[in-house]
Design a protein that fits this description.
61% of the residues lie in helices and 0% in strands. It contains six helices and no strands. It has helices at 6-15, 19-37, 46-55, 59-78, 87-95, 99-115. The longest helix has 20 residues, at 59-78.
Length: 139
């Protein structure tokens, strides 16, 4: 996943009349998918998500915001973080027409995931090595 400045996401979206927001939408979907896919979750495509949003005149965006927040919380838990689930908050903001705030929350959560190293302890693997000079005990 890529760390982005949430304020610049908003500014670029305004400057480009929403075109950057579509790029961000596709990129974030693909980035989250690459993180989740490693853990055996369902497959999604950013381009397909964008197509669904266009076909449904934006209604799919409500589902997308809710699901991506859930997936981010899952990624946080897998990394040993608290797993903050903002899905309901982001959904309500999007329904109320404040989707830009949902975008900021999503990007901040992505940035936290990117900045935080894995807290889970690596599993130690024991290996039995035999050196050329060692001779088994004869009893």
């Amino acid at each position: 996943m890529k760390k982005r400045n949430p304020a610049l996401v908003v500014v670029f979206s305004i400057i480009t009349c929403g075109i950057y927001m579509l790029y961000w939408y596709v990129s974030v979907t693909n980035e989250i998918e690459s993180e989740v896919k490693e853990k055996g979750k369902a497959c999604r495509s950013g381009g397909l998500a964008l197509l669904f949003m266009i076909i449904t005149c934006g209604i799919y965006n409500f589902y997308w915001v809710y699901q991506e927040c859930k997936r981010l919380a899952s990624i946080e838990r897998d990394k040993g973080m608290s797993g903050t689930d903002n899905s309901l908050v982001c959904l309500i903001l999007s329904v109320l027409g404040l989707g830009i705030i949902s975008t900021i929350l999503l990007q901040c959560q992505i940035n936290n995931i990117v900045e935080t190293p894995d807290k889970k302890e690596p599993v130690a693997v024991e290996t039995n090595t035999v050196s050329e000079n060692s001779v088994p005990d004869a009893e």
